[in-house]
Each structure stands twice: as structure tokens, then as C-alpha cells.
Amino acid sequence: KSGKERINILLAGIAGKGKPGQYLTDTLIIVSANIKTGRVSMLSIPRDLYTQIPENIRVGTKINSVYQYGLRAYPDNPARAVQPLLDTVKNITSLPIDYYAILNFDGFEKIIDTIGGIHITNERDIYDARYPGPNYSYETFELKNGFHLLDGHTALKYARERHDDPEGDFGRAKRQQQIIQVTKNRIFSAATFLDVFALNTLLDTLGENIQTNIAPEEIGDRGQQLSLGHAA
Q1: Which of 208, 158, 201, 217 is nearest to 183 (CA)?
Q2: What is the reported pTM?
């Protein structure tokens, strides 16, 4: 926001309407960006962290269900429904949240595919025979150690996989932060995505797959400031 040297953005990932656990935020990452230096830091919040909801301290719950609580409490006001989650995160971290973006699985895949995929280095062989499939089924996800170009569908699996990681949710959080950093670099290294019209087109493509209070012109301004930045 205007005049601030640091902005904090809460990124939340949900499955989306009609999918198992549709409104549980199983990914919660704070992206903290220093506008002056261009440095970006990321903090992942464990989805199983037990917390209280500020507006109703009698309600104790895992943090990944707070957004779902907001939707039930304010079904006709999507912007208001996000507030319990923002307040909860601020209480836990003492960080003011300037912006938020809640993205479902379909939206995540569209972003990755729109930018032509992302290059990642996978540090270890992954073999998960219990990756969640359609209709509460299981399927196998396998990715060898090494350098890969991932499309949206595969990147989603890489971000969500948790059964075959010796670091558990911590390893999962590392992969999700890696994807965010690579995606940010990919987007803001292409001049076309710094154009407000192009950003509007991307947001229109995402449609109901994303909910955010970030205006396209703000993305462009921040992108130019942070395009040369790197993770702290």
C-alpha cells in the first residue's frame, strides 16, 4: 500500500467447490516483501496449527478450517468471510496482512499453464501411491530427482504431495515456497505480464478460481519493484 516499505501478502490454497475439503486452506503462506530492497521472505503456517478465532474465542479449531468458518458465518459477503482468517494469522504472527489471495486448485493449474510451466529442481525421488485422486480415490504420483519443467497439473501434485516426504509438512512447505518463488520470477521476467491489460486478462481467466483484494495495477507496480528481488 502507498507509503509502506514492506507489504505482507497471505496466500491461501483451497481445493475449491465440489472437491473434497473444498474450503479448507491446506496451504497458508505469508509472503513478506520489502519494497525498498526487493527482498522477499516467506513464512509457511502449518495447516494443523490449533488456534482460536479472534471474533469468537470460544471456538478452537485447526487453522486450515478458519476460512471455512468465515464462509459459513458470512455466506453472502465473500470479503467479510476472509476476515476471521486474516485476523487469526495476524494474532499468531503479529504481522499485519495488507493483501490476500485465495486460489483453488483449478486456478493454480491455470496460472502455471498460462506462463508456460515452471522449471524446478526436485531434490529427491518422489513416489506416492496414495496421492488423492478423483472421487476420494488414490493414484500414484512419481517424480524423479533432478530438473523438470512442470505443467500446472504436475506442479499441483508436486505442491500437495505429503506421504513420501521424510520432512512431512515441513518438506511440503519447502516445495510450495519453491513454486511461489519460481512462479514469481517467471511472471515478472516477462514484460507482457507487467502490462495492466495482460494482468486483467489473467485475472479474468482465473474468474471465480481466485479471490483477492489485489488490484491488477498494484500487481504491476509491485512486480516492477520486486522483479529483481530474491528470497531472503
Answers
A1: 158
A2: 0.85
